[in-house]
Amino acid sequence: MTSKTKAPTVIKISGSLLDEPNALADLWPSVQALHEDAPVVLVHGGGTQMTALADRLGHTPERVQGRRITTDLDLKIAQWAIRGSLNTTLVSEAQQHDLTAVGVSGADATLVQVSKRPAWDVDGRTVDFGWVGDIEHVDPSLLEGLMARSLVPVVAPLGIDDEGQVYNVNADTVARALAEALAADPLLYVTEAGAVRRDAENPASRLATCPPGTARQGIAEGWIAGGMRVKVETALDALDGSVGAVYICGPGDLLARSQATEVVLEA
Description:
Layout: E1 9-13, H1 21-37, E2 40-44, H2 47-56, E3 63-64, E4 67-68, H3 72-96, E5 101-105, E6 112-116, E7 120-122, E8 125-127, E9 133-138, H4 141-148, E10 152-156, E11 158-160, E12 166-168, H5 171-181, E13 187-190, E14 209-210, H6 212-221, H7 226-240, E15 246-249, E16 261-263
Parallel strand pairs: 1-2, 1-13, 2-10, 5-10, 13-15, 14-16
Antiparallel strand pairs: 3-4, 6-9, 7-8, 11-12, 15-16
Helix pairs in contact: 2-3, 5-7
């Protein structure tokens, strides 16, 4: 029986891992062990699968600073690939590992309420992100009700505005917002790399911790970039809120976190 008194663990799974059967095989036993001790919420990405589907449709998505521009077609692709295929697959995988999961999206029960992202000025260019939502408010009552029944919510990163318009939302940002709303401890970003590295190709360059100064240096020098930049930035934001600890780890390292990077506020 899952404890209802302990802070929940929020686990964000990168979409790139969802095409790797061995990665999921490593992931599920750890999720099961964590769920024995405290409630668990899974948040998943799906950028890799969205891109693959876009390719099949002859469409090339655009990204700016690791964040996807969402056209009308991209929004449909997000709903098909993320809320449809991937979310259902993860619920099915959970069932195979003795976890009773419920697939939801941030649009369900106004879980993730958003507004349209305003245009950004990026390197002198005005960027309209299209149907990308910035989170305004999270209502965690849906998740709390599911967790109270020892169910595992599996959350697709969509959001909804006051008018009922659905938006694509960065999954790392959704995980951070949900972790803050639930006062999670810890928040785990599960990635293929399994850590922040000074050299992406060299596991020996792993950082055991990543404080703000190191994050700024890595972003300036370019070895923290793209999706990893978003993870590090949202991790630091989470620690400024009510989240107890944040790690960037691999799918087989959710428990020990011996090869992970802990994002910290002080060096």
